[in-house]
């Protein structure tokens, strides 16, 4: 099986409830994202992170999402995280200081050069590509033109931005990303996941991987 035909990993982001974690794990989701940025409608406190992260079993990656936040806060959350997601304007040096695997989110501005970004964030485990809306770090619910992603990018791509059960098969087929990241597309309301939408999303990714 070629690398392009390998199974697409799935990250559910913005988890706030134990029952949603249990459902995601039962569906075989690879990673669960916890939003630590207080301005997000899906944010949780470090104490809530401790409680929720304790319910995630082995081999499911616990990801903490931060947006231009103090190193002290990130250090406080580290015991409950396996991977850090930097979703702001953090420098590579800032991202590297925590001794923990990390990914860098990039918003797809018109002038972005992904090859240069891959060099700048060479120590990242992957690049997460999200839609760009001025003043909004993520969670826009909007897609971007997937054809802008170079096929030869030097880093694994995590595709985000407006993904739903309705468009994820097309996204996986066109982009062949290493992973996909969904939040609003599986929700009844911000931070409250919908079981049927979660299951449909996972099902459509699996179906796209078999074609």
Automatic annotation (TrEMBL):
InterPro entries: Aldolase_TIM, PRAI_dom, RibuloseP-bd_barrel, TrpF_fam. It catalyses: N-(5-phospho-beta-D-ribosyl)anthranilate = 1-(2-carboxyphenylamino)-1-deoxy-D-ribulose 5-phosphate. Residues 11-203 form the N-(5'phosphoribosyl) anthranilate isomerase (PRAI) domain. It comes from the Bacteria. Pfam families: PRAI. One of its GO terms (molecular function) is phosphoribosylanthranilate isomerase activity. Pathway: Amino-acid biosynthesis; L-tryptophan biosynthesis; L-tryptophan from chorismate: step 3/5. Keywords: Amino-acid biosynthesis, Aromatic amino acid biosynthesis, Isomerase, Tryptophan biosynthesis. Gene3D superfamilies: Aldolase class I. GO terms for biological process: L-tryptophan biosynthetic process. The keyword Amino-acid biosynthesis applies. Its EC number is 5.3.1.24. Belongs to the TrpF family. PANTHER family: N-(5'-PHOSPHORIBOSYL)ANTHRANILATE ISOMERASE. This is N-(5'-phosphoribosyl)anthranilate isomerase. It comes from Vreelandella aquamarina. The lineage of its organism: Bacteria, Pseudomonadati, Pseudomonadota, Gammaproteobacteria, Oceanospirillales. The gene is trpF.
């Amino acid at each position: 099986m070629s690398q392009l035909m390998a199974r697409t990993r799935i990250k559910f982001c913005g988890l706030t409830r134990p029952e949603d974690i249990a459902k995601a794990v039962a569906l075989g989701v690879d990673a669960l994202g916890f939003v630590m940025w207080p301005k997000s409608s899906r944010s949780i406190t470090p104490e809530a992170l401790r409680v929720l992260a304790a319910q995630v079993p082995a081999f499911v990656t616990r990801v903490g999402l931060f947006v231009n936040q103090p190193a002290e806060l990130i250090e406080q959350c580290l015991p409950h995280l396996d991977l850090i997601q930097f979703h702001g304007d953090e420098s590579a040096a800032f991202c590297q200081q925590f001794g923990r695997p990390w990914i860098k989110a990039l918003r797809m501005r018109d002038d972005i050069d992904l090859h240069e970004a891959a060099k700048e964030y060479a120590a990242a485990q992957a690049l997460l590509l999200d839609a760009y809306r001025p003043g909004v770090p993520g969670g826009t619910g909007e897609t971007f033109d997937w054809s802008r992603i170079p096929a030869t990018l030097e880093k694994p791509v995590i595709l985000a931005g407006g993904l739903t059960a309705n468009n994820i098969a097309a996204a996986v087929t066109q982009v062949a990303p290493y992973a996909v990241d969904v939040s609003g597309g599986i929700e009844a309301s911000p931070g409250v996941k919908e079981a049927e939408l979660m299951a449909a999303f996972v099902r459509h990714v699996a179906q796209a991987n078999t074609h």
